[in-house]
Amino acid sequence: MTTRIAAVDDGTYYHHESLSGDRFAPFFDAIVYAPDLRDFDFDSVDILIVTCRTNASHLIPCKAKFMQFLQSGGTVAAMGETNQALWLPAIQWTASETNYWWWREPGGDLGLRVAAPNHSLFEYVTLDDCTWHYHGYFTPPPGAESLVEASGHGSVLYEDKVTTNGRMIVTALDPFYHHGSHFMPATTDFLSGFLPWLQAGGTSPQRRGNQQTSGLNTPVQQ
Amino acid sequence: MKQNCIFLHATFGEPPLIWRRLAKEGRAITVPQYELSSERLAPAAALVVGMHADQRFLAGCRTMLEAWLERGRTLVINGHIAHPMLPELGRFVPPQGTGIAALRLTRLRDHPVFEGVPVPALQTRRGVMGFYGRGHNPMPANGRALHGIGPDAMPVDWVYERPQGGRLFVHGGNDLWGSCEDRALNDRLLAQLVTWAVGVDTQQQGAAA
């Protein structure tokens, strides 16, 4: 059975590039313009990705629709900078200062750690693929599984199968924004694993191929 | 006619602090993007669109924007153009080539917006290049490039006097007012951008660039 994936497009250039660009467009069965979300039939898909930085003013009016979709077994992937606590249940978020420069420091380490190494996601992405920066962290509810932790803080990526009958994948990471801005190659690597993992249903691991990022979007040290 | 500047507020919550400060000083007003209308635009000399704007929405505002521009107004666009909101705009062209050479900036023309803002302040942050821009929005014929990027100095930002009236300032990178590591320079850039954008007598279309 094919997993049907929809993704929200807030009309920004970076959503356009990430969702309609050749690289990832084949993963999406539907692209939903954010102002049209209220009229979208959530039940027409299995997974709804709310892309990074989608304006929460489009999401808050759909809070009941998200809940209904989740209770009917749907999956919501709620990406970074979308104010998840305002439109999804059981979200506990703490904003933090963003360290953009960890990679320039001696022994540079952003402090992220894989919290569930046996989770199927890590058949598709590596810790390096998850590592660029984060803008805060979550405290997942009891029973949810943290997948990537910011050491000493909380989770930056977790899966919650307990709060509803469906599944919430909640993250502080913002790969659609940076990939769509031609910036930060780790974000392209992340999506190159994350989207196939979603497409596979998140339960039947298969190793991803040998796609390499172009390297065009790397910050360059002078 | 009141010569004010509208910042189109596209993100959730309050507008960016730097714009709230300008608004407090009476130098700009912020308008939620979906409230943009002919009535809101009518008294404005300039409209500034940021990198997080809903370009699909703006593309649907083409007729309204053209009519407003033809009255001699100024439109400032930041970001990569994905949904051209005017006929003379084209889709963003990603960087050609790799490494430092593809990201190197060249000042091609002095302009009041960049007065006192040296190229090195735009070029690097903590010695790292690539924040100002990576790629460019295609410039119409008779546009005037301000900075070039890469070995071929492709126009990463440019100004254009529209033959039909009005003018454009297009910056193909992140929001211009966040370009520099030095916040004072960012403040200066934005102040100069707003001053330039509203500074033209709206009765004298295309009098300055």
Structure description:
Chain A has one domain (5-199): Rossmann fold (3-Layer(aba) Sandwich). Helix content of chain A is 19%, strand content 21%. Chain A has helices at residues 13-20, 56-59, 63-71, 175-180, 185-199, and strands at 5-9, 30-33, 47-50, 75-78, 93-95, 112-114, 136-138, 145-150, 154-160, 167-171, 220-221. In chain A, a hairpin with a 3-residue loop joins strand 8 and strand 9. The N and C termini of chain A lie far apart (50 Å). With 209 residues, chain B is α/β, with parallel strands linked by helices. Chain B has a single domain (4-198), classed as Class I glutamine amidotransferase (GATase) domain (Rossmann fold). Chain B has 7 helices and 10 strands. Chain B has helices at 17-24, 38-41, 55-59, 62-69, 99-103, 119-123, 183-198, and strands at 4-9, 29-32, 44-49, 74-78, 105-107, 124-125, 128-129, 144-149, 154-161, 167-171. The longest helix of chain B is centred in the C-terminal third of the chain and has 16 residues, at 183-198. Classes of the chains: A alpha/beta (222), B alpha/beta (209).
CATH superfamily of chain A: Class I glutamine amidotransferase (GATase) domain
- Distance linking N and C termini of chain A: 50 Å
Rounded mean pLDDT score of chain B: 92
Biggest β-sheet description of chain A: 8 strands, mixed
Task: Give the total of beta strands of chain A.
Answer: 11
CATH topology of chain B: Rossmann fold
What's the N-to-C terminus distance of chain B? 21 Å
Helix content of chain A: 10-25%
Overall CATH class of chain B: Alpha Beta
The count of helical stretches of chain B stands at: 7
